[in-house]
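Chapter review: from sequence to fold.
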Amino acid sequence: MELTNYYYYFEKAISPKDCKKIINLGLNRLKEYKKKGLNTFAVTGGNSHKQAKEKINKNIKPLGDKTVEETIKNNTNDFYVRDSEVSWLSDPWIYDLVYPYIHIANEKAGWNYDFDFSESFQFTKYGLNQFYGWHTDGLGDHFSKYKRFIPGIHKKNKDDKFPLGYTDNNNLIGKVRKLSITINLNEPGDYEGGNLKFDFGPHKESERYHECKEIRPQGSIIIFPSFVYHQVTPITKGNRYSLVLWTCGEPFK
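The token string follows.
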């Protein structure tokens, strides 16, 4: 789908104090997961985007900054597209901070997408050499709708997570991701690399691959349709902390 605006941003929207508070919440939640023996690593292998069950095989190569075409040409068993640590936050005050910007962006960018629910916030920690290769957050069609998790019929994995695409949240069943929201929580100079980049598609010959520098200042928010291809390039120094949210609604018609 071709768009007039592929993203909309707000520079330094969240205060440094609140950014630090969110970082502490996210890191403490990671510690809680580890104490419970849960796996905090988000590692996605192959084109199938299935969660890796074990540690990354030494022969598997990171996609890094390859193009979407180069990604697709890879065999599904010889690369992985994601390497990071994640925890989940659902504190009401964070929604109160972020939601006004979502509504403004949805109107000003000309999307005017219908949505009526949001998932939990995903706090992500990218360490040295970690990254997230080219991907979309959702496709928006009826095949991509969240399905109901039924105990006894469906099984959670060993980390107590639902199978991909399943949920027990009645507010999400039958919904798809419409808008993706990313917030940079770091102070300037905390990390190097870790650039958010977009792929606007082959029809954008003048600037198909775009590095989003607008999100680098601490507390900056960027909002974009969840079907837009994007990536986070490998971290070359320090740690990158981000907060991600997805708004959900009925599939596009």
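Two observations follow directly from the output. The chain has a mean pLDDT of 86. The radius of gyration is 18 Å.
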